[in-house]
């Protein structure tokens, strides 16, 4: 059957429509709509020119997903002051609302998570923020699971003291120990408990498992160019054959074909056939896929009178299954968090059953609890994902007399769906076989740039391999490159990495997966449109500035005779706020345009001191004047905004100049540094136009071999195949490129609390430069500023209210007026500075108000917020 899909994109690269032209799909067409910052606001599923299903997404003022509505279910997500999820509410049909609550440590890590059935999972951390211990208890304090972890000097887990309570209420205690080779690859995993087990691995240079010894049962493997060609298990040899595309086609025992695979043009398995040992009949399983490369149907025992077809329905355009159907009846449905973690499963029937997922520190499903918090089922796995049946209890406990029993829960290792017929996990782009510890097909991207980045990754040289030979510390996110696991540092990041950022995808790549960290040029133009508008207004009024620029000694203009003497005026005026904006614009923008109009404005108001200070900014050498002014007059909030706009490096960072290497703190205006035009690829020495320095208390270390680059969290680096990525968003394996075109992989990213002076500068024309002894490309980003963060309490309507003695909130004083309490909130860069308003009597949150007018915006009340009076 011919498979043909059509894709349509908007100017920002967002996928707006997909069509399946086969006419046999569950959905003929998907239509997506986006808001002005490219976040999905609706997804429609069409069949025969009719909308069958619609998903609606609503975001808060900071861009966080607030409300998700789709047929039969509604979810709300609530956030704290730093945009971390504090609670979520889900409601299915007419059922009672289900709440999940989160508490966090001062550093933002999850401290406690409470599920709707009352079970609580708590976390403690080492000083480097790796998980020290996690434990889950019922509401009555009964321990359900616990993991106490230890690590080696390279950050790899060496010991896990684990406790798991089974569905039979028996406690299972095990201690796991792990050993690694010099390349940090797993070579031994030992379980010490009631049922002891030892598993060792011998790996070749490409991290293929050459020999596996599990409890003295040996399995050996032979390879040809990383393709598994034979497997010998307890004396029985299996031979693997491949098609011309490098995909496993047949597995044979002697002349007998044991298993056979058929694929579509997109490397998806369309049919799997295996020979029954007793009847010698072929048992076939067939699969169908949609235009987004997702499994939409599975037929077991295809071609027989026992054929069973299961349909999978997804959450919008994500890979999160929201329901499964058999014979057009929903058999299971699922609930997800804001970041895509699978929270609960609802099994249909006369009496529906809700089960809540409990995971270990690797996000492997380890526990299912029922509505009361009692254990419904438990699971266990080897490092590579094989079932440890000694830990299976309850609903999915294996039955030797009926091994083909229907699974109660199919989501298991890494939270992925297990298929017992193919004995593989659906990891998204490819199927993974845990018994062999490898994929059935080799990794690939249709985009040449992405594919180059893929094969250049040191951990992905073996394109059939899994987790670079270390499934304890690494994880394969979506069937592509392995990445260093964040699971030992933050359980929420675990789920985010596993599922991706699906609710606000900035672009869609041709291989059918979300481009996780790409932003189109059109999007950047939208994001900075306010800067362009400000620039146009300033240029139109810049005649006075032009005159000053011609003559450095030009005196400040005298006050116009018609100008009345300055009168006392309330500071909460638009002029005061606008001056703040222009102060920052003049500091950030070295062109002098903002300074010129600002000086004229100050002079017109009769403020000669400010006029002189500001005018100095448009003259060469005027920085000393400006520094003197800002050292005493810039508000702390304005200074924070300036600091936030400039991304910098610590002293000693090597900068490549036309005179050789030079520490960044010694760079001066007029120096020529090596830079690159990111659009044309031209590399040349370009002049430094402007300098900047500031103090910080946190740095990010980027480790590449023996080289360590110390920078601020937001500083962008050029990553091959992806573009500009902020330091805090870099990951192990990201590829940098030197001025000579050499590719270098990031080994690790380390975040440190450390006070330091940092430096940056503006490069003429190209706005980039090369840093460190390795000469990697970075941006001179020091331009954009969120104007909404500037106002102070004295510049708002709060100056007309009564200041109270109530303790400060988020560092801001609390004011009273008309039986309401107010405080200024400047922390939300997405929504801008605003006033938080509360009812004085009960302390309930009323809404958010304009800082100048005091008008309360509609629909901004947050019932989760309270103020302590």
From TrEMBL:
Lineage top rank: taxon: Bacteria
SMART domains tied to this protein: HintN
Keyword match Ligase: no
GO biological process, one term: intein-mediated protein splicing
Biased composition range(s): Basic and acidic residues: 520-550
Keywords, in A-Z order: Repeat
A Pfam match: TEN_YD-shell
CDD domains: FIX_RhsA_AHH_HNH-like (cd20745), Hint (cd00081)
Domain Hint: 646-740
Cross-referenced InterPro entries: ColE3_ribonuclease_sf, Hint_dom_N, Hint_dom_sf, Intein_C, Intein_N, Rhs_assc_core, T6SS_VgrG/RHS, TEN-like_YD-shell
Annotated spans, Disordered: 509-574, 846-869
Signal peptide: none
SUPFAM superfamilies for this protein: Hedgehog/intein (Hint) domain
Positions with biased composition (Pro residues): 562-571
Repeat among keywords: yes
Gene Ontology MF terms: hydrolase activity, acting on ester bonds; ribosome binding; RNA binding
Gene3D superfamilies recorded: Colicin E3-like ribonuclease domain (3.10.380.10), Hedgehog/Intein (Hint) domain (2.170.16.10), RHS repeat-associated core (2.180.10.10)
Record NCBIfam families: Rhs_assc_core, YD_repeat_2x
Protein name: RHS repeat-associated protein
């Amino acid at each position: 059957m011919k498979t043909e899909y059509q894709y349509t994109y908007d100017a920002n690269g967002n996928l707006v429509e997909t069509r399946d032209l086969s006419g046999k799909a569950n959905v003929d067409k998907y239509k997506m709509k986006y808001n002005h910052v490219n976040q999905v606001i609706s997804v429609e599923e069409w069949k025969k020119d009719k909308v069958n299903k619609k998903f609606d997404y609503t975001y808060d003022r900071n861009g966080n997903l607030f409300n998700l509505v789709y047929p039969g279910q509604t979810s709300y997500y609530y956030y704290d002051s730093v945009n971390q999820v504090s609670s979520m509410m889900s409601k299915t049909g007419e059922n009672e609302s289900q709440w999940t609550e989160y508490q966090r440590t001062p550093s933002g890590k999850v401290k406690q998570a409470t599920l709707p059935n009352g079970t609580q999972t708590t976390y403690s951390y080492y000083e480097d923020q790796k998980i020290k211990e996690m434990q889950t208890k019922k509401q009555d304090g009964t321990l359900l699971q616990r993991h106490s972890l230890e690590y080696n000097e390279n950050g790899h887990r060496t010991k896990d003291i684990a406790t798991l309570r089974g569905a039979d209420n028996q406690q299972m205690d095990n201690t796991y120990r792990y050993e690694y080779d010099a390349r940090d690859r797993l070579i031994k995993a030992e379980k010490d408990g009631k049922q002891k087990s030892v598993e060792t691995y011998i790996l070749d240079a490409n991290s293929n498992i050459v020999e596996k010894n599990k409890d003295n049962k040996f399995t050996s493997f032979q390879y040809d160019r990383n393709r598994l060609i034979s497997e010998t298990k307890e004396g029985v040899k299996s031979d693997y054959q491949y098609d011309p595309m490098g995909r496993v086609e047949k597995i044979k025992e002697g002349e007998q074909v044991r298993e056979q695979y058929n694929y579509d043009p997109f490397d998806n398995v369309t049919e799997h056939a295996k020979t029954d040992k007793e009847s010698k009949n072929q048992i076939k399983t067939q699969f169908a896929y949609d235009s987004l490369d997702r499994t939409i149907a599975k037929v077991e025992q295809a071609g027989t009178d026992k054929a069973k077809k299961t349909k999978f329905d997804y959450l919008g355009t994500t890979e999160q299954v929201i329901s499964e159907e058999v014979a057009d009846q929903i058999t299971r449905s699922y609930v997800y968090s804001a970041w895509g973690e699978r929270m609960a499963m609802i099994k249909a029937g006369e009496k529906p059953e809700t089960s809540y997922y409990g995971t270990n520190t690797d996000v492997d499903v380890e526990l299912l609890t029922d509505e009361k918090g009692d254990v419904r089922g438990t699971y266990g796995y080897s490092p590579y994902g094989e079932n440890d049946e000694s830990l299976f209890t309850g609903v999915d406990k294996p039955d030797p007399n009926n091994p083909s029993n229907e699974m109660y829960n199919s989501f298991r290792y890494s939270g992925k769906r297990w298929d017992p017929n193919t004995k593989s996990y659906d990891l998204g782009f490819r199927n993974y076989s845990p018994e062999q510890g490898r994929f059935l097909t080799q990794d690939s991207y249709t985009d040449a740039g992405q594919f180059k980045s893929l094969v250049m990754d040191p951990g992905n040289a073996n394109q059939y391999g899994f987790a670079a030979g270390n499934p304890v510390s690494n994880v394969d996110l979506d069937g592509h490159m392995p990445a260093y696991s964040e699971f030992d540092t933050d359980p929420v990041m675990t789920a985010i990495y596993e599922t991706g950022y699906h609710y606000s995808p900035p672009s869609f790549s041709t291989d059918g997966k979300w481009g996780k960290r790409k932003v189109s040029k059109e999007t950047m133009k939208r994001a900075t449109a306010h800067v362009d508008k400000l620039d146009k207004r300033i240029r139109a009024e810049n005649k006075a500035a032009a005159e000053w620029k011609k003559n450095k000694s030009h005196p400040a203009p005298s006050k116009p005779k018609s100008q009345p003497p300055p009168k006392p005026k309330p500071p909460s005026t638009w002029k005061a706020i606008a001056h703040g904006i222009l102060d920052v614009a003049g500091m950030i923008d070295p062109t002098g345009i903002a300074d010129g109009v600002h000086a004229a404005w100050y002079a017109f108001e009769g403020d000669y001191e400010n006029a002189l200070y500001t005018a100095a900014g448009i003259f060469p050498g005027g920085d000393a004047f400006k520094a003197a002014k800002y050292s005493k007059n810039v508000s702390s909030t304005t200074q924070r905004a300036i600091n936030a706009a400039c991304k910098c490096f610590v002293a000693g960072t090597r900068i490549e100049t036309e005179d050789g290497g030079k520490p960044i703190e010694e760079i001066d205006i007029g120096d020529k540094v090596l830079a690159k035009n990111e659009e044309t690829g031209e590399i040349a020495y370009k002049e430094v136009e402007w300098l900047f320095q500031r103090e910080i208390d946190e740095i990010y270390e980027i480790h590449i071999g023996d080289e360590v680059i110390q920078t601020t969290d937001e500083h962008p680096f050029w990553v091959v195949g992806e573009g500009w990525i902020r330091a805090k968003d870099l990951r192990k394996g990201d590829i940098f490129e030197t001025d000579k075109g050499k590719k270098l992989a990031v080994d690790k990213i380390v975040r440190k609390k450390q006070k330091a002076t940092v430096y940056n500068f503006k490069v003429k024309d190209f706005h980039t430069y090369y840093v460190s002894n390795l000469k990697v490309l970075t941006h001179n980003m020091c331009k954009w500023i969120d104007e909404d963060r500037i106002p102070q309490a004295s510049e708002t309507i709060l100056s007309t209210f009564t200041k109270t003695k109530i303790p400060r909130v988020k560092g801001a004083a609390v004011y009273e007026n008309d039986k309401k309490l107010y405080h200024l909130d400047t922390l939300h860069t997405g929504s801008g500075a605003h006033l938080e308003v509360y009812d004085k009597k009960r302390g309930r949150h009323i809404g958010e108000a304009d800082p100048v007018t005091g008008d309360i915006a509609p629909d901004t009340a947050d019932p989760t917020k309270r103020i302590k009076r």
